[in-house]
Design brief:
NAD; globular; Enoyl-CoA_hydra/iso; alpha/beta; Rossmann fold; 2-enoyl-CoA Hydratase, Chain A, domain 1; fatty acid metabolism; membrane
């Protein structure tokens, strides 16, 4: 039984700028209504225009702030003059106004008069100390106050830093940590009340030390971002592009705040902003928000655009230069990010030199400051990974170096090991992290012992399962793993989880043999993406060699494996995350239930490579739009043409959902499917759903699916769809081969030469899918499309 007085059903957000509006949007994403307030501008006819504009910008934001635009209905706009009293009805007030202490103090004074006794009040400040924010406030306000620092963009960046004060109610912090983890889907890090907390303290130091070095040593903007991007386990945006995305004014503010508020910092001078950035801010070159910063996008006369980069010497923009360095080439030879980083640090050219210098700078800083700013090395690492999308946190990189002494020596270039690193060598096991029986443990600098890395309650990891010998069977492409409680997990582990013979074989095994020892099955994996679909390389090679029987057999194998999932004698629950495209989407659609990560991008994209969905995707989307005999007889779907038309519109455009919520609207997921917002608990939640279905089956309340007959409209409807295709071709909106593919798709979705009066079996529709797929595979332009995707990762419009 919880003893906390806190609960969150409605939230007030004050400040409708980029962050405030995005926080309101994310609250809407998880079903929580909010009141978004801002100032009343002088002489405004619409007194809530500032908040309204903030909401409109959030609706237009790219990447999207809302899971679906319908979510905006949960945000009510207002202003702090007329609507402040309404905050008496909310459970949590988030202040996201301008970073000025006087303005925040003035607002808090007004808030204190209207808030209910247990209303949580938090600030989204990126660096102002919590103890300064509550100066002058009464005991109740102080008890309910903490900092909740979200990262931009709020929907996508996992990090949520929580900073309490000595007066914060001891029950509030665990409540907000659980709420942040389970409801908001965030990676929550508890921070000490030090300037700019953890992520910005370590991250901005790393950014600025890199910029100082680039200026001093003559590196270009493009060189820095290429050297310190994916090859170093970081996003493509690396340093300068990240500064553009977050805003140079924001970087300046954080740097100035650190310089002012961290006078004892041994590297304080690094936070002195380079004059070039001061000049850029003064000229309004703030990055993405102003259209130019270190990079500038210029529209070309014939359409399209070109990215220019700033010359750090002349401050003029010029074309982006291709950066080719041996160290980067060496790093790209590895799929494993750890091996890439080591290869880069070992490089003997200017790329390796910059990588070593900047890595040494940031690692020494993190190790020296860790105990001052955080309670553990885990907090520092999670802040860096979740706040900046790094593959590794600072101490995880230390471990890479500690395990590779030659690279460590080369990276430090004579610099001394920080005291904490010396201690982990002398009093620990030589690294900050160790693994014992599948349980990851960290070196606790408070008492020099190893302790388990904290994880959300009940979370399940594949690492721990495999270390505990829970693998029932593994054929190299996929494994069947015992999750406990009578639930098994079918896990894919091919590259990009592309579907090959091994995965199909393991699906068959799981469905045929699984019920002998399990009562439910989950389909999930540990990779960033659920599945990129069928193995396109094998299809292209088969087509070029005329191996039609092989392709036919492979597609039939996928179709029948999916049918087995659908008609399994025990419940099957899919747990997708990231991209689930083509065949990956089809596997999900054939499972009995889905527990999807909210950030799942699901779609039938086969037309992009010149074919049609042929693993049952056409069939299932038709059924989800009401093509089954029962609903057609009941007249619930507007006749047999409606499902065909709706499925055609979705598949012909290769539509991919921008969230799991949109996937429900597109019918790739059912309305009854459920969502989790935190990747760390997805497998736990999927297992719970599977158990619920298994118990329902035992109680006679759930039965395996039964085969369905389908009513499709036939050739007359096909002609209607083909006419639409012809119109698009005439107006130049599709290419000739797009039209060829679309006509094949129309034939499948309308049932070929069937009569709208004669029901079709699912197998008959599967046969139409396979026939169209094989026919298109034989075409040169389809093969060109497949090759383009494999070579460039980009679709070819031929």
């Amino acid at each position: 039984m919880s003893t906390t007085p806190y609960r969150i059903r409605k939230v007030g957000v004050i400040g409708a700028g980029v962050m405030g509006a995005a926080i309101a949007a994310h609250l809407a994403n998880v079903g929580i209504p909010s009141l978004l307030l801002d100032i009343v501008p002088p002489d405004a006819k619409d007194r809530s225009i500032v908040a309204r504009t903030g909401l409109e910008k959030a609706l237009k934001a790219r990447p999207a702030a809302f899971y679906t635009k319908r979510g905006a209905q949960l945000v009510t706009v207002g202003n702090i003059e007329d609507d402040l009293q309404a905050l008496a009805e909310v459970d949590w007030v988030i202040e996201a106004v301008v970073e000025r202490l006087d303005i925040k103090h003035s607002l808090y004074e007004r808030l204190e008069k209207v808030l209910a006794p247990h209303t949580i009040i938090s600030s989204n400040t990126s660096g102002l100390p919590a103890h300064q924010l509550i100066e002058g406030r009464g005991p109740e306000f102080r008890r309910n106050f903490l900092i909740t620092h979200f990262f931009n963009p709020v929907r996508y960046m996992p990090l949520l830093e929580l900073v309490p004060t000595p007066d914060t109610d001891p029950t509030l912090l665990p409540f907000m940590r659980d709420f942040g983890t389970e409801v908001l889907g965030k990676g929550v890090v508890l921070c000490k009340d030090t300037p700019n907390f953890i992520a910005n303290r370590v991250g901005v130091y790393g950014f600025l030390s890199t910029i100082h070095r680039a200026l001093a040593e003559g590196y270009s903007v493009g060189e820095v971002d290429t050297i310190l991007g994916p090859s170093m386990g970081r996003p493509k945006s690396a340093v300068f592009r990240t500064a553009d995305l977050s805003g140079l004014d924001t970087l300046a503010h954080v740097a100035d705040n650190l310089y002012q508020n961290a006078p004892e910092d041994p590297w304080r001078e690094t936070f002195k902003l380079p004059e070039i950035i001061r000049q850029m801010v003064a000229k309004g070159q703030l990055g993405e928000k102003s259209g130019q910063g270190f990079y500038k996008r210029v529209k070309q006369p014939g359409g399209g655009s070109e990215i220019l980069e700033l010359d750090l010497k002349t401050l003029e923009y010029g074309p982006k230069q291709k950066v080719r360095l041996a160290s980067i080439g060496a790093a790209r030879n590895y799929d494993d990010p750890a091996q890439r980083v080591l290869a880069m640090l070992n490089g003997d050219d200017k790329g390796g030199q910059l990588a070593r210098e900047t890595t040494a700078d940031s690692l020494i800083y993190a190790a020296t400051l860790a105990a001052e700013i955080a309670d553990s090395v885990v907090a520092v690492d999670e802040a860096m990974r979740w706040g900046f999308n790094f593959d590794f946190g600072s101490f995880e990189v230390w471990d890479l170096l500690l395990k590779n002494p030659q690279v460590l020596e080369k990276t430090l270039e004579g610099r001394e090991l920080p005291e904490l690193v010396q201690r982990v060598r002398e009093k620990g096991q030589g690294t900050f992290y160790v693994e014992t029986n599948g349980v990851r443990q960290y070196f606790d600098f408070k008492d020099d012992t190893y302790k388990p890395v904290p994880v959300p309650a009940g979370s399940i990891t594949f690492t721990a399962l495999k270390a505990s010998n829970k693998v029932v069977r593994d054929n190299g492409s996929a494994a069947l793993i015992d999750l406990g409680d009578g639930v098994a997990c079918l896990e894919f582990h091919t590259k990009m989880n592309s579907i090959d013979e091994g995965i199909i074989e393991m699906i068959r095994y799981a469905v045929e043999e699984g019920p002998k020892q399990f009562r439910a099955l989950v389909v999930a994996n540990d990779a960033p993406d659920f599945s990129a679909g069928a193995n396109l390389f094998l299809v292209l090679m088969g087509a070029r060699q005329g191996e039609w029987d092989m392709i036919n057999s492979a597609i039939n194998g996928l179709q029948q494996a999916n049918q087995m999932l659908k008609y399994s004698s025990i419940p099957v629950v899919a747990a997708p995350t990231g991209r689930a495209l083509g065949g990956g989407c089809e596997i999900i659609m054939h499972c009995n239930h889905t527990r999807a990560l909210a950030e799942s991008y699901i779609g039938l994209v086969e037309v992009g490579v010149g074919v049609v969905p042929a693993g049952g995707g056409c069939k299932e989307l038709l059924l989800r739009h009401g093509a089954d005999l029962e609903r057609q007889k009941a007249g619930k779907t507007g006749g047999p043409f409606t499902p065909s038309r709706k499925a055609f519109e979705t598949i012909a455009m290769a539509t991919v959902s921008t969230s799991a919520v949109e996937a429900q609207e597109l019918r790739f997921l059912r309305k009854t499917d459920r969502l989790s917002v935190n990747r760390a608990v997805l497998l736990r939640d999927a297992k719970a759903d599977a158990l619920q279905l298994a118990e329902a089956q035992a109680a006679g309340k759930w039965q395996p699916a039964q085969p369905q007959l389908m009513i499709l409209p036939g050739s007359g409807a096909r002609l209607v769809l083909e006419q639409q295709v012809d119109n698009l071709l005439l107006t130049g909106k599709v290419s000739e081969h797009d039209a060829v593919v679309a006509r094949h798709l129309a034939r499948v979705l309308t049932g070929g030469n069937c009569s709208p009066l004669t029901p079709l079996t699912e197998q008959q529709v599967l046969d139409l899918e396979r026939e169209a797929f094989l026919s298109l595979c034989g075409m040169e332009k389809t093969q060109e499309r497949m090759q383009a995707i494999l070579m460039t990762g980009k679709p070819l419009r031929n």
